[in-house]
Design goal:
By secondary structure, the chain is α+β, with helices and mostly antiparallel strands. The protein has 11 helices and 9 strands. The strands form 2 sheets. Strands 3-9-8-7-4-5-6 form a 7-stranded mixed β-sheet, sandwiched between helices. A two-stranded antiparallel sheet has the order 1-2.
Length: 266
């Protein structure tokens, strides 16, 4: 998603997004200069600039010659303004929506269609965590989840983290899964499993070629399966950590025989 598309997702029209980005690169500038920089028709720029000015994104000022020049709100202040406005509006709207009778959705499993949706939902759940977080992930996912996880750790949320690959640092109780390379090859990609407070789950697979499949749910059975999955990975890492040589000797490199669930005698 490029900058214009991201601004559109925050409520800008295409013309507004182009005008804002253009002005950042040439301020102060007249409406004509903004239009030229943005590739917009001059017939559209005055209306666009007026809307952005009314929202506090642009500020207009006359120069010594009486020409009207525009300045753009700097990106950090713009993002903070949007964030604050969104938080305020959602806090006001939620109680009103909750007054509307609705059927139970606790058994639904909601698809997450791309990496952005997976990341957004996972971080949201981590921020909401009050008691516990069970998470299984790869280094690529830890790069965007780490800050939120450390925030949860600072709130005294209990965390068990299974890391595929040698972890560079620890968050809560961190476990290094011992067969990450084998699993990556077998599954043709990476996996993410997140369970928060034993009540909500995000599961996703990041496949070779950029394909992402994910889901989020409060479904009790779905949550239980995911919770057991992470816990059993923790059990395995504890066993292999303290009994490593013996386990390798008994089950072979990469614990191949241990992972062969169809051979009870292996």
């Amino acid at each position: 998603m490029n900058t214009i598309e991201q601004l559109r997702s925050l409520g800008f029209t295409t013309n507004e997004a182009k005008a804002y980005v253009a002005l950042l690169g040439c301020e102060p500038a007249s409406a004509y200069e903004i239009a030229k920089q943005a590739g917009l028709p001059t017939s559209k720029i005055y209306e666009t600039a007026a809307r952005l000015t009314s929202r506090g994104v642009f500020q207009a000022s006359e120069d010594d010659s009486g020409n009207l020049l525009y300045y753009a709100l700097n990106p950090r202040d713009l993002m903070e303004s949007i964030r604050s406005k969104t938080i305020l509006e959602t806090e006001q709207l939620l109680p009103e929506l909750q007054k509307i009778p609705a059927s139970s959705q606790s058994n639904l499993i909601w698809p997450l269609l791309d990496a952005t949706q997976v990341q957004s939902r996972a971080i949201e759940l981590i921020h909401q965590a009050k008691r516990s977080i069970l998470i299984s992930l790869w280094p690529e996912e830890l790069t965007w989840a780490e800050q939120s996880l450390r925030g949860a750790e600072a709130r005294d949320v209990s965390i068990a983290l299974v890391h595929f690959g040698k972890p560079g640092s620890t968050i809560g109780a961190t476990y290094h899964h011992p067969v990450e390379r084998t699993l990556y090859a077998e599954k043709s990609g990476r996996g993410l499993t997140l369970v928060v407070d034993g009540s909500e789950v995000v599961i996703a697979t990041f496949k070779m070629g950029g394909v992402v499949e994910g889901a989020w749910s409060r479904n009790e059975s779905f949550v239980t399966v995911a919770e057991d999955y992470v816990k059993h990975d923790v059990y395995i890492t504890k066993v292999t950590r303290f009994l490593g040589p013996e386990v390798v000797e008994r089950f072979g490199e990469d614990y191949r025989k241990l992972r062969d669930v169809f051979d009870a005698d292996a």
